[in-house]
Amino acid sequence: MDVLRTELPGIGVRFEMETKRGVRLSIVAHREGRRDFVVYDPDDPDSTLECIVLDSDEASSIGELLGGARIIEKINSLHKEIDNLVSRKLTVDAASPYAGRTLGDTKARTRTGASVVAIIHGDQVTTQPTPATSLNVGDKLVTIGTSESVDAVDRILRGEI
Fold first, then answer.
1. Residue 111: pLDDT above 70?
2. Which of 57, 61, 70, 155 lies at a CB distance of 3.0 to 4.6 Å from 160, suitable for a disulfide?
């Protein structure tokens, strides 16, 4: 999909695109963090049908949800290309020694070779979590690696290794 980027002096940046179904839309990223999601009238390209204004927190949440879905989609496509690659959602339960601690405390990647590519906390998705990302009871860690390495991350979360 082609995205046209236009600088808006004093305002921010507009990103404009057309979907495969012919819907033209844009996102105006204001300097202060606000985002305007605009859907244009197909019969009059200079008129809008809808403008949804999102504050920076709302825009961030939607971005994380969409970004997380895209990462999962890409991981699933990799499964077809690499025979021994798996991805699983691992849960941090109340008995985990890492509940209330950070992802870095698990040293999961160093110890197993598997990668945690996203963390799902309720309806929030954190893509590309850092070692400082907190782990909470009920969080789901989207983990990718070999079957053995993902199993090892699960055992780490349960405090078995």
1. yes
2. 155
